[in-house]
Amino acid sequence: MTSPVRILFVCMGNICRSPAGENVMNHLLGKEQLQSKVVCDSAGTKGYHIGEGPDQRMCATLATRGIPAKGTSRKFVVADYDKFDLILAMDSDNLRDILALAPNESAKQKVKLFCHYVKKYPDHDVPDPYYGGQDGFEYVVDLMLDGCQNILNDVLQAK
Predict the structure, then answer these.
(1) Strand order of the sheet with strand 5-11?
(2) Are the beta carbons of 39 and 71 closer than 8 angstroms?
(3) Run of H or E residues at 6
(4) What is the pTM of this model?
(5) Active-site positions?
(6) Is pLDDT above 90 for 30?
(7) Which residue of 31, 55, 108, 110 pairs with 102 in a disulfide if CB–CB is 3.0 to 4.6 A?
(8) Average pLDDT over residues 109-124
(9) DSSP bridge partners of 9
(10) Alpha-carbon distance 87 to 119, whole Å?
């Protein structure tokens, strides 16, 4: 049996965007019974919310789509480069912070902007919904559903 592809979703605080990515991907994997093919986690570039669960507004938004929200916030660390095959930054600031910790060029090659996989929307970055209203959380989940499905398609084609 081949080992699963390991994907890490990374935003700033690890309570809105990156747990949304992790939970959406796990939901899609469960629907397709592909949990053995892909393993997901999430982290933040800052340690503001270490040990906290996902933002309640994101949990509620995911729940309206039938997606359970799980996870505990943690900070991105250099060791994540060894543990993950694909590291997805939610925005350009996160990308810069992640790449600044890269131990070598090979590690840098694992990092991509999440929106690289988004096809239905023109965004370059996943907007941070934290200080906005409900529409922002809805839009982030829309982006996650689109991007995660495309990531899953790519992973399955490569296997």
Answers:
(1) 38-44, 5-11, 86-89, 111-113
(2) no
(3) strand 5-11
(4) 0.96
(5) 11, 17, 128
(6) yes
(7) 108
(8) 98
(9) 42, 88
(10) 19
